[in-house]
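[step 3/7] fold_predict: job queued, chain A
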Amino acid sequence: MLTGGQLAGLIVAVFWAVLVTFIALTLLRLARLLREAGEVVRDIGDQAGPLMDDMTRTVQRANEQLGRTDVITKQVAGVTQNVSAVTTVMTSVVGGPLVKAAAFSYGVRKALGSRDGDAGGDHDHDGDRSAANGRSRESRSRQGRSRGGRTRGGRSGNGRPELPARSSGRGRG
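[step 4/7] structure written:
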């Protein structure tokens, strides 16, 4: 049989054998992991070149498109200025004569209205009263109102319907 010292030596030897086996297996796994990591890095390195080339081409195309967009933007700004200029020209070419035509037609209406007013009306075409006719009618209207709030049946002395007098804009009075 074994003595105490031999038994202790045997236990230590078995312990060291298990420890060395465990460390050897761990080192083998670590070596396999490092080998696979090396392959991944190599694959990434192999793919990085083409990826960088693709990214460079993509950035160049984007810059070309931005250049085209810049040209289009400048052309749109030019078109906007041209449209503004055309609008200004059309306003002056068409607007001026339209204003003149409107003024002419207004003058013709006023002239025809004043001619009709001289022939037998108390006011011109627009319904504005002349100063003398407005005063005489206003005084007649006041007299009619004092008799009952209205003139004879809402009509003036000459049989025409009477309209209330307009304010002169100077206040009430």
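[step 5/7] annotate
Helices lie at 4-120, 131-148.
The CA atoms of residues 16 and 22 lie 10 Å apart.
exit 0
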